[in-house]
Amino acid sequence: MRVTLLLFGPVREMVGQERIALELSAAADVSQLAAALTTKHPTLRAGASTLRFAIDSAFVDGRHVLADGDEIAVIPPVSGG
Amino acid sequence: MVADRDFIVLTDQPIDAARVNAHVRQGCAPACGGICVFEGVTRGETSVKHGALCHLEYEAYADMAMSQMQRLAEQARAQWPIGALAMVHRTGVVPVGETSVMIAVASGHRDTAFTACRWLIDELKRDVPIWKREVWANGARSWSKPQRRDLTDQSAAVADAD
Predict the structure, then answer these.
(1) For chain B, first and last CA: distance in Å?
(2) Residues B9-24: what's their mean pLDDT?
(3) CB B151 to CB A10 under 8 A?
(4) Distance between B34 CA and the closest CA of chain A, angstroms
(5) What is the pTM of this model?
(6) Chain B contact for A43, CB < 8 A?
(7) What is the maximum alpha-carbon separation in chain A?
(8) Which CATH number fits domain B2-161: 3.10.20.310, 3.30.70.260, 3.90.1170.40, 3.30.565.10?
């Protein structure tokens, strides 16, 4: 299946794109998505464990099962305020 | 709706502090006896390497930032008897001395106003998807690293391991 990732802040800058598509096996979960992301973009590996993921503006954990066509935001550690 | 009752805004314009104050004053008069206001301001810094800080640049995932701020407002209202509440965050360039975030809580008594205001800014710094970049006099630009106390447990464990 194919999902779209929305990239922000330092992650967007490291990858050089605002959106990327990833191919995942059917019924992959968020932790598998994270692994696929760092495999494709090794520059993200160092900070991989600090990344959080969100769908429809809500954080999801590693066990959240994805569906074809999902749009997932990659949220590096935030620094607002 | 909480979203209508509370003043929750993401803006690329300077924050209008008078308007925020007016919202919380009018929102709960005459029942409120305490209003606590927090403003986060771009601090002037000097780096040996880069010289003076020119400004900060804030970037938000706007849809999620708004819904997270609304969620925090709802959670605060569920925990404390809040009369009126405002959360405003600025995006784009915020020069030294200008406000990037403003939170105001009005309540019957000061304890609640202080506690809820403190909780809201702490939670905002952990969970609202906004990122800032420091822009220095020599042209250097660097993403600001969150303070350890602002990290999620998971991220803090990683920071400790560094």
Answers:
(1) 44
(2) 97
(3) no
(4) 23
(5) 0.91
(6) no
(7) 39
(8) 3.90.1170.40
